[in-house]
Amino acid sequence: MSVLEIKDLHVSVQTDQGVTQILRGVDLVINEGEIHAIMGPNGSGKSTLAYTIAGHPKYKVESGSILLDGADVLTMTVDERARAGLFLAMQYPVEIPGVTVTNFLRTAKTAIEGEAPPIRKWIKDVRESMAALRMDKSFAERNVNEGFSGGEKKRNEILQLELLKPKFAVLDETDSGLDVDALKIVSEGVNRAKENTGLGLLLITHYTRILRYIKPDFVHVFVNGRIAEQGGPELADRLEDEGYDRFLTPSNVG
Ligand code: ADP
Ligand code: MG
Ligand code: MG
Which of 28, 117, 184, 196 has a 20 to 30 A CA-CA distance from 249? Predict the structure, then answer.
């Protein structure tokens, strides 16, 4: 049974104005197979949490810890985090000129597993996953994220998720800019990963829409750098009706 534990995490970022505290004591435990939705107003620090888990150098951990099956994630390089079983899909994916989707995936898979996957099986797996995500075959030969539409970027993220089979994934606003059809396809991919590999998921979203297709086990409301409230799926329904206004008291707005 795998577990990702975030304990009393404080994170700052250096800006022109000096050091700004963004995360102010985040506590979160995600077990294998669990889906946790993090919701919250813009600027509450959701992406900062995702970047910190990913090991983005811009974000400085002041105190607290992130443990994956007891191992200290914060001392791992970005590559080591991937090998340990973490998958991070960013709100703004980067272009990788000259590297095709197929080659990128095979290189990533090789790095994570420590050996290259057998070529025939790999090609079959890639084809199957692409078909499941209703992706055109030609997509495999395109350069990573180069000229991808919003929907193509998101599908590519889920393609990576399906093929790399991480223990835990962080999806940051995967729903933004997707039409309903693409949202359904992407959500089915996530649900398959949960079913097939016991994926644990941190699903960051501003809107409740994606939660109609990916059912969270837990919902956390993020306000001003920490979790202000948590509950089950019913909390998402309540947020859909009420928005975030009741969380934005003067003492909560940083
Ligand atoms: P969310 O994803 O919830 O919208 P973010 O984590 O993106 O929130 O941002 C939280 C706060 O931290 C915002 O006030 C934002 O301006 C600030 N912030 C985040 N990243 C940076 C950065 N790299 N440089 C300066 N400020 C940042
Ligand atoms: Mg934002
Ligand atoms: Mg964000």
Answer: 28
**Distance of CA 218 from the midpoint of ligand 2 (Å):** 21
Domain boundaries, the chain: 3-247
Instruction: Give whichever of 68-77, 149-158, 207-216 has the largest mean pLDDT.
Output: 68-77
Neighbours of 24 (CB within 10 A): 16
Reported as a single tens digit per residue, the pLDDT across 86-99 is 998 765 566 777 88
Q: Which of 47, 58, 170, 220 to mutate to test the pocket of ligand 1 (most atoms within 8 A of CB)?
A: 47
Residue nearest to atom 15 of ligand 1 (CA): 43
Q: What is the ipTM of this complex?
A: 0.95
| 113 Cα–ligand 3 center, Å | 30
How far lies 18's CA from each of 54, 65, 96, in Å? Answer: 23, 24, 32
Please state, in angstroms and rounded to a whole number, the distance separating the CA atoms of residues 125 and 31.
27
pTM: 0.92
Q: CATH top-level class for 3-247?
A: alpha beta
